[in-house]
Specification:
The protein is of the alpha+beta class. Helix content is 38%, strand content 14%. The strands form three sheets. The chain has a three-stranded antiparallel β-sheet with strand order 3-4-5, covered by helices on one side. A two-stranded antiparallel ribbon has the order 1-2. α3 packs across α8 and α3 runs antiparallel to α9.
């Protein structure tokens, strides 16, 4: 590890080690979507998250979370997730999805045009910024924004993803109620792995959802 990281705080060192585990190239990135931990594990993780008010948006820019990164060849993160989450997906020579079928677990809709699909960050970039990512390095934020090893990226209906914006589970949940437990498990596990904070309303909402799982 370079000496500049050796001088960082313990938290930063932990995040740097975490970034080091992420796969940013190679066909292995096309594996099935990672499954979040079970509800019991996630309830424990939630109890261990730091509860504090969200920080400000001062200094925030999506460009501070570089995406979509090249995973291998001409395939970037978006195209890898489209391939991973779709069925019968065909890609052109530049790795762009030209046909396929995508089922959006947020609303139960099925789509046949990749332009109708957004790749959602389960924990939105702006939400992460307000929850601790403002102190990360650009490389740490890049790893977060392109993380294929955790339950952080998923292909969903673009309109529904835009309605979500940067809201937390106290403010927005997927319209398909049957997906609530999975979504909460994904959200908490990502925040836990990245040592992000939760606010009190967010924790209350997540506790209620997970207690019903």
């Amino acid at each position: 590890m370079r000496s500049v990281y050796a001088r960082r705080t313990a938290v930063s060192l932990g995040l740097t080690a975490l970034v080091g585990t992420l796969v940013l190239n190679g066909p292995a990135a096309q594996a099935a979507p990672p499954t979040p931990p079970d509800a019991a594990t996630v309830r424990t993780q939630l109890s261990q998250l730091t509860v504090k008010p969200e920080g400000s948006m001062d200094g925030y820019s999506r460009s501070k979370f570089p995406h979509w990164a090249t995973q291998y060849g001409q395939c970037n993160t978006r195209e890898v997730v489209l391939k991973r989450d779709g069925q019968d997906v065909e890609q052109d020579a530049k790795c762009a999805a030209v046909s396929g079928t995508w089922f959006s677990p947020y609303d139960g809709a099925t789509w046949h045009d990749a332009q109708d699909i957004d790749i959602d960050h389960i924990v939105p970039l702006a939400q992460a910024w307000r929850s601790g990512a403002s102190t990360w390095t650009t490389e740490q934020r890049k790893a977060f924004a392109n993380d294929l090893t955790r339950s952080q990226l998923i292909a969903v209906t673009d309109r529904v993803n835009q309605e979500k914006g940067d809201k937390d589970p106290a403010q927005w949940m997927p319209p398909l109620k049957s997906y609530a437990c999975t979504y909460a498990r994904m959200w908490v596990s990502v925040k836990y792995d990245y040592k992000l904070t939760v606010d009190s309303a967010e924790k209350t909402a997540l506790t209620g959802i997970l207690n019903g799982c």
